Amino acid sequence: METLSLLGHGFSTALTPGNLFATFIGCLLGQFIGILPGIGPAAGIALLLPITFGVNATTALMMLSGIMYGAMYGGTLTSVLINVPGEAASVMTAVDGYQLAKQGRAGAALSVAAIGSFLAGIGAVLLLAFLCPLLGGVALKFNAPEFFLLATLGLTMTASLGSGSAVKALLMAVFGLMIALVGTDPMVGTVRLTFGEIELMDGIDFIPVAVGIFGIGEVLSSLEVSQADAVPIKTKLKDLWLTGKDWADCRMAILRGGVVGFLVGLMPGVGPVVASMLAYVIERRASKHPERFGKGALDAVAAAEYANNSAVHGAMVPMLALGIPGSAATAVLLAALVLLGIRPGPMLMTQQADLVWGLIASMLIGNVMLIFMNLPFAPAFAAVLKVPYDYLAPGILVVSLVGAFATTLSLFNVGITILFGVIGYLMMKFNLPRAPIVLAIVLAPMMESALRQSLMLSSGSPLIFVQRPIAAVLLVLVLVSLSLPFFRRKTVEAKGDELDGTV
Amino acid sequence: MRVVDVAPAAVMLGLSAVVLVGTRELPYWVDFTPGPAFLPRWIAGAGVLLSVILLVQAWRAGGAARPEWPERFGAIRVLLTTGGLILCVPLAPYLGFVATTVVFMVAMMAGILRRRLLPSLITAVVTGGLIYVVFVWWLKVALPFGPLGI
Q1: Residues 441-460 of A with CB under 8 A from B
Q2: Can you tell me the ipTM of this complex?
Q3: Can you name the residues that pair with A192 across neighbouring β-strands?
Q4: Distances (CA, A) of A280 to A170, A265, A464
Q5: Distance from CA of A409 to the nearest CA of B (A)
Q6: How far apart are the C-alpha atoms of A169 and A63, rounded to whole Å?
Q7: Which residues contact A232 (CB under 8 A, 6 or more apart)?
Q8: What is the mean pLDDT of chain B?
C-alpha cells in the first residue's frame, strides 16, 4: 500500500507540464536515436546530456531515461523495414522482423513489437516500483565491503553473462578501471598517472569516453562501406492490425520474453542485448514450430521485443536501489545523476523520494506516449529512414564534439573524445566489448573508496570480506560469475565430444 | 597466432606496465590504510594476468584470425574523417566552433562521401544552425567564437 501511495505521489510530480514535456521530448529523441543506425541509447544519452544542464535533476532524469527506453521502440523500425538494427538490442528483432516484412507483414511485426514493448514496459515498471523499495531496504544494511563486492559483481557479470569472450570482457573492464585511475586519488588527493599533464588532473571525464567509444567509433565503422540509400519496405496504417490468431501465437512469447527480460535486466552489467538473445533462444526451444524461426516467426519478434524493453526497465532496479548500473545506458544515466549533483546509492530512495517515484511514474507515462507514437505514426517515423545515412553521419560526429566540449568547456576533452572514437573503432575491429569500459569507469570511484574504507575498518585484513554475511554471499557470487564462462566452455566442448561420438 | 587476440593482449600488457611505472613512487600502504598506489598495482596485476590468459588462449586456438580491415576506399573514408575530426580541434579557436563544424560537414559530405554539393551545404548549414540555437542561444554554452561571430 505504501508503494502505491508513493507511486501516486510520483504521478503528481511527473504530471506537471514541464516534466510531461521533458518525458515527451526524451521519448521522441529516444525514438529517433533508436531509428538511427550508428548511435545507441548509451551514446544518445551521453550526447544529449548537455541539453539538460540548467533544468532540475528530476526533469533531466525523466528526459534522459525517456531516451533510453524510447530507443527500444525506435530500433524496431529499422530492424523490420531495412534489416539494419537501429541499436544492438534490436538485432534479434531484425532476424525475423525483416523476413516478415518481405512477406508483406511489416505492419504486423511493427505492431506486435510496439504493443509488446508497451506491455513489457508497463509490467516491468510496476515490478520495478515494488522491487526497488524491497531491495533498497536490504541495501541499507550494506557497508563499504558490500559495496565493493557489489561493484565487482557488476563487472564480473558483464564478462560472464555477456556474449563473446569473457577474458576480453574482463580485460576491457580492467582497461576502464585504468582510465578511471587517472587524475587525483579520491582519498588523499595525490595526483596519479597524469605524467605532468595539467588537464588530466581532474581525471578523464566519463562523457568523452562514452561518446567517443559508442558514438564516434560506430560512425567510423559504418563509413567503411559506402551506404546504399536505404529503401524501407512500405507499410500502411491498416497493416498494423493484428488478427486473433496472431495474438494466440504470441501470448506465451509475450509472457516468457517479459519475464526473461526483466530478470536479465536485474543483473548488474548484463542489459537488454543479452535479454533479447536469451528470450529468442528460449522461445525457439519452447515453440511448437521452431523451424519458422529465422524465416518470419511473429512470436520470435514478440519474444525479442518484450525481452529488450523489459530488460531496459529492469536495469533501473539495481541503479535506483543500489547505485549499480544494470547496463551501459544505465551506467551513463548514473554518471548523469552524479553530474546533476545527486549521489546515487541505497539512500537515494529515501533522500530523493520525489526524484525516484517521479521517475518511475514518468516511465509509465512515457510508455503510453510511445505506444501512441509508434502505432499510428509508424509510417511517419519510417520516412526518416529515407534520409541517406551519409547526410546523418557528419551531424552525429559534430554533435558528439559539441557535446564533449559542453560538459567541461575544454577542447582537450574534445581531443579525448576523438581519441576514444578511434579506440572504439579499433575495439570493434578486434572484437573487444565496449560496455565493460563504461561500466568500469562509472563504478571505479565507488569501488576504490569502498575497498580502501573496508581495509581501513579491518586494519588491513581482507577477512572482512568473508566475515560479514552479505559480503560473503556477494564474494561467492563474484567467484561463481568468474567461473561460469569456464564451465560454459567445458559444457560446449563436452556436447561437441558427444556429437563426435554419435557420428 | 590469432592477431585479434594477441594485439589487445600486447596493448594491455603495455598499459599495465605504464600503470606500474607511473605509480612506482606512490605509497602502496600508509600506516593502516591502503595508499594511492594500492589499487593501481592490483589493477595492473589483473591486466597482466588476463593478458597472459588471452595470449595462451590465442596460442592454443591456433590459426591466424585477423581483424577485418576495410577495403581501400573504405579505409580512405575512415582515415580522412578521422583526420578531419582531429583538425577541428586546433581550428575551432580560430574559425569558431560552429563555423568549424559546418566546414567539416561540407568537407565530409561533398569531399569524402561524394554527395552532391548543394544538399551537403544545406545540411551543414541547417545542422550548424541547430547547434547554435540549442547550445549557444538556449543553453548558453560558451563555444569558441571566430571572426564570423559563431
Answers
A1: 447-448, 451-452, 455-456, 459-460
A2: 0.95
A3: A183
A4: 26, 15, 42
A5: 7
A6: 30
A7: A81, A82, A382, A385, A386
A8: 92
Angle between helices A2-14 and A17-35 (to 10 degrees): 90
Contacts of B33 in chain A (CB under 8 A): 187, 452, 455-456, 460
Q: Which amino acid is present at B10?
A: A
A149, A68, A480, A92: which is closest to A314 by C-alpha? A68
- Chain A contact set for B138 (CB, 8 A): 51
CB distance B34–A455 less than 8 Å?
yes
Tell me which residue of A371, A486, A479, A460 sits closest to A118, measured CA to CA. Answer: A371
Is it the case that residue A137 has pLDDT exceeding 80?
no
The residue of chain A nearest to residue B114, with distances taken between CA atoms, is: A390
What is the rounded distance in angstroms from the CA atom of residue B122 to the CA atom of residue B45? 53
> What DSSP string runs through A296-333?
--HHHHHHHHHHHHHHHHHTHHHHHHHS--SSHHHHHH
Report strand pairing: A191-192 vs A183-184.
antiparallel
- The 3-state secondary structure of B83-112 reads HHHHHHHHHHHHHCHHHHHHHHHHHHHHHH
How far CA A497 is from CA of A489, A490, B19, B36, in Å, comes to 12, 10, 43, 49
Q: Where does the pLDDT of residue A500 fall: very low under 50, low under 70, confident under 90, or very high at 90 and above?
A: very low
Radius of gyration of chain A (CA): 22
Distance CA B53, CA B93 (A): 46
Q: Which grid cell is B92? A: 575551432
For chain A, give every domain's residue range.
2-502
pTM over 0.90: no
Looking at the complex, report in whole angstroms how far the Cα of residue B95 sits from the nearest Cα belonging to chain A.
14
B32/A188 touch (CB, cutoff 8 Å), yes or no: no
Residue A260 contacts residue A282 (beta carbons within 8 Å): yes
- The answer to whether the CB of A328 falls within 8 A of the CB of A438 is yes
